[in-house]
Amino acid sequence: MGQSAAFFDLDKTVIAKSSALAFGRPFYRDGLISRRDVVKSAYAQLMFRLGGTDEQTMARTRDYLAALCKGWKVEQVQQIVAETLQELINPYVYAEAAALIAEHQAAGRDVVLVSASGDEMVRPIGALLGVTDIIATRMGIVDGRYSGEVEFYAAGPSKVTGVQELADRRGYNLADCYAYSDSSSDLPLLEAVGHPSVVNPDRGLRRVAVENRWPVLEFRYPIPLGRRLRERPAVPVAAAALGVGVGVAVGMAIYGRHRRTRAGLASSR
């Protein structure tokens, strides 16, 4: 257990793609989501990356996620992740992120993945990276199936709640801790630590980083596990999360809001 920690967002920070969209194909293939869900999740991810989202949208996203996943077998989700992890995620881990994680570990800091994706998928990602500490969305489970309740939604300010709880248990001083993210939605997380850095930031986050003189990191080189093991033996790999559920949920929330906005503009003409 280190004296401080480094907290890493997942999508576009550790991996060069959306973990939510990455699992769309196998989730659709196994009948967990519809083609309509896939299309809406893709559109939503684009809008989310361009403009971020507010607390109201995140709340709708959480509620839709709960409804979407209700009745899914947890074992089926875990099996899909295990079967597709290497193909869908492994080639997209940023070499720079893997090296940075290794540097923090070598310096004696704990490394923590903090993701809105589900624990059932983020935890295998951590295992591949050599990271055991995870803060992720936790779904209610009854008799091996998702109950339709979200016990903890690790997005926006809730990420800080999870980080603070872990810090209290471990005795971290957050002023000595580090955080990395690409998204404006993670501003509360970045502001909670003494050493924030932005990675491939969206426009809004880049502006905040410049104003606050935070380091701006550009990660450009995703590299597969085999090459990482050959070139940097100490640096393992990563993967993704109950992501498609989050992606579809964001999709339903933002897609619906976008359609209402367009309808309003049309009616005012």
CATH topology: Rossmann fold
Mean pLDDT: 79
Alpha-carbon distance between the termini? 62 Å
Q: Which descriptor suits the 3D outline?
A: globular
Q: What structural class do you assign from the helix and strand content?
A: alpha/beta
- Largest beta sheet: strand ordering: 4-3-2-1-5-6-7
What is the CA-based Rg, rounded? 18 Å
SSE pattern: EHHHHHHEHEEHEHEHEHH
CATH superfamily: HAD superfamily/HAD-like
Strand content: 15-25%
The count of helical stretches stands at 12
Tell me, what is the CATH class? Alpha Beta
The total beta strand count reads 7
- Unreliable segments of 5+ consecutive residues: 232-255
CATH architecture tag: 3-Layer(aba) Sandwich
Number of domain units: 1
Largest sheet: 7 strands, mixed
Helix content: 40-55%
Explain this structure to me?
- With 269 residues, the protein is of the alpha/beta class.
- The protein has one domain (5-268): 3-Layer(aba) Sandwich (Rossmann fold).
- The protein is 53% helix and 16% strand.
- It contains twelve helices and seven strands.
- It has helices at 19-22, 24-29, 35-51, 55-69, 74-88, 95-106, 119-129, 157-170, 187-192, 203-212, 225-231, 243-268; strands at 5-8, 110-118, 133-142, 145-152, 178-181, 195-199, 216-217.
- It has a seven-stranded mixed sheet with strand order 4-3-2-1-5-6-7.
- The protein is globular, with a radius of gyration of 18 Å.
- The N and C termini lie far apart (62 Å).
- Residues 232-255 have low confidence and may be disordered.
